[in-house]
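Need residues for this backbone.
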């Protein structure tokens, strides 16, 4: 090097020799000037074996390139590689010399694999958050925003036949030479090659399915009863094989066939068993995982990140992620903002237990043009419900709500309903009206009232 500029790099770096080409006030310029404060090679030392030399490209440079790719919403390692070779903004942000020849596409996949294996991504995130706290960015109690988004899985989504075949092969590999050789060869060949049967013939498919289920049962029994039963890898492979069979296959009494419907927690991939069928909306389906993110409203810095099953409810992960954020020294969330998916009473209660108020719009209540539940006055202290016509009932009977929890159903008797001048505006039924009041009624109504105020 020709010289040093404090501890930040060489005079040949793009951010010095081509400073005039770096976009002013941009993400790249900020990363160029402060990247060494955020990402350091020492943060990734545990990813490499000692005594075997140093990586040809410092890990901090690779990670800064990955940050640029994320900022530019790139999904191709090939395009990311090209940018590291030709883009002045990127070179400045990466802290490399102007004649830097770029990073090979495969280097990024290898780096991600190393980081995943060692949980280094979370370690770097926590270190960055600690630096933000030390810098005084989070002043006082915070208002934070939470949201979730689908993450498409990288695993192959397979049908029932392939799932069982591949899971049998997985169990055979886990057992290794501890499995009977003849059985091992059968399982290995079955997992490697799709059987040559008439897939248009239902009887042929069911016969093949029966053979698969029988072999799966034999493998599970062998794994459970043999001397490998205590091996965690074998136990996990046996559990997955059993789960796939139980979720997708039904016994008709005369044989087996594919079960109707889809199991709620169905395993969909043999290469990534944690993938699930998920929905972001009624019309938007995906296969993969669900990402939860909590962001500080003021600084827009990420406070917490979590990944859950793709079929999990949006709001279900709020409290757990908030608890991690609240456990961070120097960070205290007072108010958590979410969309309507977080308005459930259970979610509100769980968030409150973590020391924050949840602000989320309550869904409107409708009743096909007739009086909705919100037009009735519920007095929890008196144990009464008053209808729009002024009729009052205290006849509460225990029922189950939509989640199977205990609730109270307040009923207006048939005689009162028949004499009511507003009955046609209340319900089309002839047996009167009932109002179900759950355990979160007061919490939800308070939230509904709050959203009506400026």
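Answer:
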């Amino acid at each position: 090097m020709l010289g040093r500029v404090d501890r930040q790099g060489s005079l040949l770096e793009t951010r010095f020799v081509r400073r005039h080409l770096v976009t002013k006030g941009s993400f790249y310029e900020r990363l160029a000037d402060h990247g060494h404060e955020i990402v350091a090679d020492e943060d990734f030392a545990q990813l490499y074996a000692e005594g075997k030399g140093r990586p040809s490209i410092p890990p901090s440079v690779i990670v800064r390139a990955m940050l640029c790719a994320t900022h530019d919403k790139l999904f191709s390692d090939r395009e990311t590689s090209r940018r590291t070779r030709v883009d002045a903004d990127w070179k400045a942000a990466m802290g490399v010399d102007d004649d830097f020849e770029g990073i090979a596409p495969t280097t990024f996949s290898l780096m991600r694999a190393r980081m995943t294996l060692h949980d280094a991504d979370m370690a770097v995130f926590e270190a960055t958050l600690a630096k933000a706290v030390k810098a005084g960015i989070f002043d006082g109690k915070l208002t934070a925003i939470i949201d979730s988004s689908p993450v498409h899985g990288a695993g192959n989504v397979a049908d029932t036949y392939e799932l069982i075949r591949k899971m049998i092969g997985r169990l055979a590999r886990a057992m290794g030479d501890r499995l009977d050789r003849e059985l091992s060869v059968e399982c290995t060949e079955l997992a490697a090659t799709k059987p040559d049967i008439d897939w248009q013939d239902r009887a042929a498919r069911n016969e093949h399915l029966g053979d698969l289920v029988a072999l799966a049962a034999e493998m599970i029994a062998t794994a459970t009863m043999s001397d490998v039963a205590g091996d965690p890898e074998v136990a996990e492979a046996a559990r997955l094989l059993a789960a796939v069979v139980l979720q997708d296959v039904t016994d008709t009494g005369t044989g087996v066939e594919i079960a109707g419907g889809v199991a709620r927690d169905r395993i969909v991939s043999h290469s990534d068993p944690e993938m699930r069928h998920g929905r972001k909306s009624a019309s938007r389906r995906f296969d993969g995982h669900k990402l939860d993110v909590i962001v500080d409203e003021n600084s827009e810095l990420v406070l917490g990140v979590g990944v859950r099953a793709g079929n999990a409810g949006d709001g279900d992960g709020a409290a757990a992620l908030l608890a991690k954020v609240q456990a961070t020294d120097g960070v205290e969330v007072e108010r958590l903002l979410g969309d309507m998916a977080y308005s459930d009473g259970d979610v509100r209660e769980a968030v409150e237990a973590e020391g924050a108020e949840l602000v989320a719009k309550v869904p409107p209540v409708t009743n096909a043009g007739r009086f909705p539940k919100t037009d009735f006055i519920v007095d929890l202290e008196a144990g009464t419900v008053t209808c729009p016509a002024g009729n009052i009932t205290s006849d509460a009977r225990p029922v189950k709500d939509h989640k199977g929890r205990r609730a109270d159903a307040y009923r207006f008797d048939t005689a009162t309903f028949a004499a009511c001048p507003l009955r046609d505006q209340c319900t089309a039924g002839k047996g009167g009206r009932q109002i179900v009041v759950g355990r979160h009624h007061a919490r939800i109504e308070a939230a509904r009232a709050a959203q009506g105020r400026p």
